[in-house]
């Protein structure tokens, strides 16, 4: 969850969701509006190694313009192309947003850039941990992936309930809760 700063799913949680969906014939959908370009080149599904049935993307793929996208298996997408499920949107095929999105994907969101930014993110995280330790601040440094997904919390955050009881000390590019 990134709407609460940064809350990493507990080990086995996403895998458990995958199994529950498979067992019950439900689609597992990842809303990667924020995580799609912040965790890894392949988003949260790549970062955590869990393959959803559908992925929804936005914001980070638009090159600064409003753009959204979703992808799924050909079976699932076939429901739209066969007109069994309706799909419509305000910004569908906006030429300027599509051009910005293509440029973003081709020139910015490349595997090479992710590798470089990932190394910078690791240095930043270790720097924060060093400073927090040096000044004796009681804080947990949480980092995942690339692009400044980093938060400092006064207690360990394992779920949304923990977050609501906490207050972030400092936020990376995601924001802060004061």
Your description of this structure?
The protein is of the alpha+beta class. It folds into two domains: 13-108, Aspartate Aminotransferase, domain 2; 112-171, no CATH class. 40% of the residues lie in helices and 13% in strands. The protein contains six helices and six strands, in the order αβαββαααββαβ. The strands form two sheets. The protein has a three-stranded mixed β-sheet. Strands 4-5-6 form a three-stranded antiparallel β-sheet, with helices on one face. It is globular. It starts with 12 loop residues before the first helix and ends in a 7-residue tail after the last strand. Mean pLDDT is 81; it is low at 170-178.
Helix and strand layout, with pairings?
Elements: H1 13-24, E1 29-31, H2 43-48, E2 54-58, E3 68-72, H3 74-81, H4 95-108, H5 111-135, E4 140-143, E5 150-153, H6 160-165, E6 170-171
Parallel strand pairs: 1-2
Antiparallel strand pairs: 2-3, 4-5, 5-6
